[in-house]
From TrEMBL:
The gene is recO. Pfam families: RecO_C, RecO_N. Gene3D superfamilies: Nucleic acid-binding proteins (2.40.50.140). It comes from [Clostridium] clostridioforme CAG:132. This is DNA repair protein RecO. GO terms for biological process: DNA recombination; double-strand break repair. Belongs to the RecO family.
Length: 216
């Protein structure tokens, strides 16, 4: 019998494979980004169906195949169901998943990026926090985790904006979403994070195109 491993993670991508299966990309704490097949997950009533959707977070029991993992069972602790009733938040969430898939690497510890992703999705479900702010905090912190960022904003900014930048860089993911900004400072923060993102992240995200069309 093949040995199974249990990994803590989140489903970043779920795509049909064959007639009844799903191909999953997961971000895991222990092994970074992995590919796993969820056999029979497209069959009605299959116990793996619910755990094979994007945003599912929990413990995944898998065994290693020749080129990928195979999902055996899962204990999901958060489905982030609230995103399914809020189209804008769901679009932001999809962008976060795609970004995490871009930054994550195979066979490397994924703890910090997974923490950031989890806390950022939770923040999208908090009405008191503007989604625009959540997005920019997530973008800046993901660049920090990836090691590509500047200690100070790329252009001179107000003291409030500079403090927000420093706070995001220095704070753990669990403490990131504990502040709001006035509209003029938020616009300033958006501008400098976007400038950095375009410099350090040379990639076009399909989900971001959809998000920007929706929020234009």
């Amino acid at each position: 019998m093949r040995e199974t491993v249990t990994l803590t993670g989140m489903v970043l991508l779920s795509a049909p494979s064959g007639d009844y299966d799903r191909r999953l990309v997961l971000l895991t704490r222990e092994r970074g980004k992995i590919t796993a097949f969820s056999h029979g997950a497209r069959k009605q009533g299959n116990p793996l169906m619910a755990a094979s959707r994007p945003f599912c977070f929990g413990n995944f029991s898998l065994y290693e195949g020749r080129n990928a993992y195979n999902l055996q069972s899962a204990q999901i602790t958060n489905y982030f169901d609230g995103l399914s009733t809020d189209m804008e938040a769901a679009c932001y969430g999809s962008y976060f998943l795609e970004t995490a898939a871009y930054f994550a690497q195979e066979n490397l510890d994924g703890t910090e990026l997974l923490k950031l992703l989890y806390q950022s999705l939770r923040a999208l479900l908090r009405p008191a926090l503007p989604n625009r702010l959540v997005r920019r905090i997530f973008e800046l912190k993901s660049m920090v985790i990836n090691g590509e960022y500047t200690q100070d904003p790329p252009v001179p900014v107000s003291d409030s904006c500079h403090y927000a930048w420093e706070y995001v860089i220095c704070s753990p993911s669990e403490s990131l979403y504990k502040f709001c900004l006035k509209e003029e400072v938020l616009k300033e923060f958006e501008s400098v994070v976007e400038k950095s993102r375009r410099y350090f992240v040379r990639h076009e995200f399909r989900s971001l195109e959809i998000l920007e069309t929706l929020t234009a």
